[in-house]
Design a protein that fits this description.
Structural class: alpha+beta
Strand order of the largest sheet: 5-6-7-10
Number of helices: 8
Order of helices and strands: EEHHEHEHHEEEEHEEHEHE
Radius of gyration: 23 Å
Number of strands: 12
Helix content: 10-25%
Amino acid sequence: MVCVRPNIPVYNNSEMTGRYYEEFEINVKTGESNLTQIYLKEGLDFISQQATAQRPFFLYWAPDATHSPVYASERFLGKSQRGRYGDAVMELDDSIGQILAHLVSLGIHNNTLVFFTSDNGAAVMSGAHQSGSNGPFLCGKETTFEGGMREPAIAWWPGRIPAGTVSYQLASVMDLFSTSLSVTGVLPPDDRVIDGLDLSPVLFNNSLLDRPIFYYRGNQMMAVRIGQYKVHYWTWSNSWEEYNTGINFCPGQEVPGVTTHTQEEHTMQPLIFHLGQDPGERYPISVQSEEYRDVHRQVTAVVEQHQKDLIPGMPQLNMCDLAVMNWSPPGCEQLGKCLKAPESNPWKCVWPH
């Protein structure tokens, strides 16, 4: 049997304990898998161990049940009104509730910051069983429209963050690094530029930090957001080649001149949306309006400063090589799961999105 690519390994610390579809079964046909429950038990046990030893801890709990192939355990399959994707979300919701309850039962909730968010909006191009929903926001994962980039964010720290507080702060996942250092009293490294901001004033005082958010797709800055305004310098959903095979990043949401299937440049006259009034990015502000001119002038200055401050980096994902995949990770010997890697034959990666 020739293995083209190895299945994804599952690790306990640095040792492989099995692989997806093998030791860790995912039934693609029915959507049943116990992986979320396995991850939950590991997380709860880790918290207990650290609390018993009175050690501070960092837990990054990142289940992938809503990522294709979407799955849920038997207890949750068929229980939601949203199909398999809803079942997976229901199980994640239950699991997070168990983690919070566990912190309370151990008496460490008043000294623990919990932050819930995601890495991108839901994929909407994966079919009825595998796709999520981004509500009123345009398109989904792999685009720089709001459906692809905007995620929920919930911060929980009893006694420090007032319950029920709503913040309109623009934030990025990159901010979690700086914020984590701040709340633990650790100074950030001073030998590099740190892109993330410390959100402590937002979390504890409900302050608002004046900052832009830059939307990139590869090396291309596609859009910028300042406050409620979003300015598109480039637009693109996915290619006509993909679209014509049935892959649609914006199903039922085509907006002429916005959800383009070729990468369209608008740098001379960018598309500007007020996301408070138009969260679906459907109605660009008239270029003849004073509002457009004021926003364009303000954002242009921000973009020019951003481009001036950029420091070119060495791309780390430009070269692909099947030989570097997880053929024989640590721990495979004990399981008898080591696979022979092909000879190294690197090529320049093709990233169609």
